Here is the input.
Amino acid sequence: MKLAACNEFFEGWPIEKVFDYCKTIGYDGVEIAPFTLADSVEQISARQREDIRKAATTAGIEIVGLHWLLIKPEGLYINCPDASVRRRTQDYMKALIHFCGDLGGTIMIHGSPKQRTIQEGWDRDEVWKHTVDTFAACMGVARERGVTYCIEPLSASNTNFINSVADALRLVQAVDHPNFQTMVDCCSGSTEGKPLPELFRQAGPHMRHVHVNDPNGRGPGFGDLKFGPVLKALRDLGYDRYVSLEVFDFKPDPQTIASRSLGYLKGLLESV
Here is the structure.
């Protein structure tokens, strides 16, 4: 099991500084939110991509992949009735996959609640079909670049579409491609009414990534969720992929968030 930090809570930090700091305190990887680098990854040149990849290599840190995929540019939507919007979204998703591959990343986490929510008056069956078609259209590029694209179940407070591991698995089965899988976010997963270890077992071999965070939006150890059973369940399942720290409350500061969360998780890993 490897530990990573998502970069967006290091607000204003150059990505090279994030790599150096995370390596210094003991993380194995960094997960990147593309909007922190540019409004569109298409604005990031081949030279800039190579520089980012070299900076990670120099720091001795792995670029895990990408998350928070569609927050920018504006106007993207995976399943709206407008076919031109869906085509533009598919094109950008393919650009994101290439960007991930160029950085050496292998995982992409698709949350983006505002770009998937079913609006009033939309037909749910049509929305489902559009969603399947959008993801399926990107899988050839994902396979080409060696990227696993994961749909993230999100809580009902964030979106009204794909709110559970069961929903995500149904979508994985519908897309039916080895490069399309799912993941579990501890904050969102805690709203399902099941213990997180049960969600891990339910996701099974389709679970390719985990985000660790407390239901209060802060890091592990900053709230009431006990992560000992969470990590033990992952270890018992033989999970050997990344566990990434993702927070939504950026207080008090990035160093405290990153270092205390890491110390808490490493301490638990030594005892489970």
About this structure: The mean pLDDT is 98.
